[in-house]
Each structure stands twice: as structure tokens, then as C-alpha cells.
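Dear U.,

Please find below the material for section 3 of the report. The protein was modelled together with zinc ion; I have listed the sequence and SMILES used, followed by the predicted complex structure.
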Amino acid sequence: MLTLARYSIGVGDRFAHQAKAQLRACMLAAERGVEVVPVWNKSNREHTIIGSEPAGVRAAADAAVRALGWTKPYHVDADHIRLETVDRFLAASDFYTIDVADSIGHPAAPDAVRAFADRHPELAGRLDIPGAGEPFETTRADVERIAGKYLKAVQDAGAIYRKIAGAKGEGAFITEVSMDETDAPQTPPELLVILAALADERVPVQTIAPKFTGRFNKGVDYAGDVRQFEKEFRQDLAVIAFAVGRYGLPTNLKLSVHSGSDKFSIYGPIRRAVAETGAGLHLKTAGTTWLEEVIGLAEAGGEGLALAKEIYAGALAKRDELCAPYATVIDIDPSKLPPADVVNGWSSEQFVSALRHDPANPAFNPHLRQLVHVGFKVAARMGDRYLVQLNACEPTVARNVTTNLYDRHLKPLFVGS
Ligand SMILES: [Zn+2]
């Protein structure tokens, strides 16, 4: 079976120009003796907005790996796919993030729920999961209620998995199941039911993305109770280890943290939990690299800076349209967004200071950063004009992309300072 390494990082590359700069960050980690495998992820939504194809992600990844002589594994992730969107990814991807969030809460057939509860009497009663703290008490009615909420989603994951396996062959790809884009975090008993059901469906899930407590806004720090997050994260690790043994799921099954870039305040707790338990981790990032492209353009000055300002002005003008699809993962206070004519007067340093995620810099503006995060559509509409500038400013862009991924992500999470 194609297996995912213990540590991996999802590196989205919206315009398919930064694969080398991203891979360099993984090479810096490798030089420190830590293997973090790059996974180039791009969702159907991103492809649609940019006007790109999954084959382009594969080509960029392969070219970067060849150019830099990377000999460790790497993967191409069909991110957040569903039954109706998976087809275009079948040739180019070897990693599939099966998104079943939309199916959560769609009730499963009552006889399927009863059959699940009959098959799993061990899920009702006292659940003593090593490492999860206090035992959980559940009743058969709880199990049926949870199965009622999640079984349909797991059945849908099974159908998508079988479609991919039919095309690519069992064991030829890595399976992730995601349910992060939903309203409420999954409790430990819910996660256990989900994993038992995935095992029943024979989905060889290697990484699972639950919804965690708190806000995972795009491109900015975690907003929530860090201690509560740490407690729940450790419970999730314990449930996964327990489910692997109990239900025969792949032994490398690990948590995937989506919208995982820039969550600086939880990297310490995650690193400690992973190190203490020996667990693996997949951290999925995407837009943080696009933001570094804009930072690199601005830092280059001249036409690069002018284009960065144009992107901001365009995003500001189309704020409602750009923010709508991301409503649950951004928190922008419009009164904190500087007007376009003010930004047009900024120097490179002023623009970079507002946009770069340096919480210690008083000029850092998380509202502006989140708006630019969802503003990649503006750059996509510029077409070649954007790509030409990206190439012209390559040295500053690449340096920012690599530094961001390595210093602010791989180092605190995997390497240590
Ligand atoms: Zn996600």
C-alpha cells in the first residue's frame, strides 16, 4: 500500500509557480534530520477559480522534485473532492481528501443505524480509551444518535473511495477523510464511531481531518481556547490510536489539521502532543504561499509593488463576492481595512509589514491579510499579467515562500528551534 510518512505538510500552490520554493523548506527540515513529506494539494474550488487542471499540479511537483533532486516521497492531493468532482483528479493525484462534511447530519437509513449499533456493542457503555482522560459513558441510544448523524457521511466516503480504487487500484493512493468544514467539532465518542464506521466500509483511511474547537481562520492565528484545543487534540490522538488497534485501520492513521497554516499559538501544544505520543501529523496549508507571493511582489518594489496594490484594491472592491464562499473561515472587520488610496501611497515596507504574519509587528493587519487571502481570484483574473510579474520578482517571492514555510511552520511544528 502507498503509505503516507509520519510527518507531512500540505503545500497549496495556487498559480503553480512555487513548488521549488516550497520543496526547499522540506529540504531545510531534512538537513536538520527531520523528514517532512510535501503534499501538493489543490481543491476543485481552487482549480475552478484559477482555471487550472490537476495535471498542472502534478507537472509542477514533478519538475520541482527533479530540479532539486528530492529523493524522499511526495504526493499530489485531490483536496476536498466529492463523488461528482473526483473524476478530473483520477489521473494526476495519488492522495485523495474525501470531503463528507456536506453529508453530516443527513440521516442514514434507520435499519443501517440499527445494524451498526448491533455490530458494535463495544461502543455502548464505559469507553476507557488510554490517554483520553476520564472514561466516556455512552448508551446504545447515544451510539444510534451519533451513527444517525455520521453514517451517511461515512457511506458516502466509502462510495467515493471505491470509485477512486476502481480507477487507480487498491493501495495505489493515500486516503484522507475530511469533515472540518462543518458547524460543530466532533467529540471523542463521535470520532470513535466515525472510525469504526470507516473500518466497516473498508476505507483504508491514513489521515483524518476532524473539526477542532476554535476558529481556524485563513492565514491568521488560531482564535480560541488553546488549552481546550490541546485537550481535545490529545483526546483525538488517543481515539485514533485506540481505533487503529480495535478496528484494524492503517497503523499510520494520523490527524490532519486543515486551514493549518499560521496557527502559531497551537503549534507548541501540537508538537508536544505528537512528540509525547509518537503520533504522526499532516498539516494542510494552501493560501499562506499565495500570500507570500503577494509579499514578494510588494517587497520587490516597482511594478511588483504596483501589482500587489492593484490586487488589494481589486479585492477590496469585490469584498462581498470574495468573502462569501469563505464565510466560516474568515473574520474580517471592514472598518479595519485601509482604503485603496491609502494603500496606494504605501512603500514596500509598509505594504509588507501590514501583510506579513508577524504578530510582533504593530503594523501587521490581520483583516487586510485575510482579505488578500481570499483575493487570489483577482490575480487569477489578471491572467498572464500576474504570472509575468511573478517570474520577474522570482527571487524575492521564492525567498518569502521558503522562509514562511520553514521558519514559521516546519520549524516550530516538526524540527524545533
Ligand atoms: Zn479542509
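For the text of the report, you could mention the following: The first strand starts at residue 7 and ends at 11.

Regards,
Y.
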